What we know:
The chain is 40% helix and 18% strand. The chain is an alpha/beta fold.
Amino acid sequence: KKILVLGNSFTHYQSSNFILKRLARSQGHEMRMVPFMKGGEYFRNFPTLSLSQIAIDEGGYEIALLQDQSEQHARYYSDPVANLGVLTETQALIQRIFVKSPTARPILEGTWGYLGASNYQGYGSMELFDHALQCGAIAVAESSGAELSPIGIAFQRAREANISGLNLYVSDDKHPSRQGCYLKSCVNYCLIYGQKFDSNVIDCDVDPTIAARLREIAEDVVFNGYDIKYFVIGEPDRTSFSTEAGSGSTTVETNVEYTVTCPADWITIEKQEGKVKSAQDQLDRWISGGKKSLR
């Protein structure tokens, strides 16, 4: 596969794109990567930076792995009106890639929570920072026609697993360690190829026991889905939406917490009263107009 990789320090630390390439080769797949990474960079600048333009314009890509500045998705979730540029810049970058790679699969990488300069970048806790990042990433990916690589969710799962010897971060408690990059690459591999690892998989200089657990987490997140909690704030664009092939409609209340399960093709919104389903394109309408995302 020919893959365009655009990112910043969260991608170039420990050369995670080359870890992905090594993983793929161990599973019988060859990747040709064209990477461009610049520390602290935002999507808004990739279409105009000279070196990223060269990479994008080479074209013919099957996959575009895209990683925005690490806090952007949380900013979008926190205030999608003031930070609408996070969404529109993602959409513009994808459209720019489509000019020379019209059939590429754009994959948006979800990032992970970290301590940051102070108090988890102002979100107050790792849990709240993760929540904002995950909700924002899902909303931006869906509204941009991109797939989401749930790397941040995998990081959260790995931290909660209390794996002996695991440290996902380097000394700044922000950028990924070798183990963190291995997990990131495992998630990307599972999403790109749609398959689990076989016995020939390599550990890429990560402790074998830890590497095996990280692969399990990546497979679970990608193939079994994940739950995210959302608050639907204010008046949505629509008060109801159709459920499963025209079987009626169900009113969705605002200011109520929902648990959202995110498999490949459907979103399930769960409340105490029961469940309703809607196709992704129907739920996208809830995001338009600067409303907080259901996802």
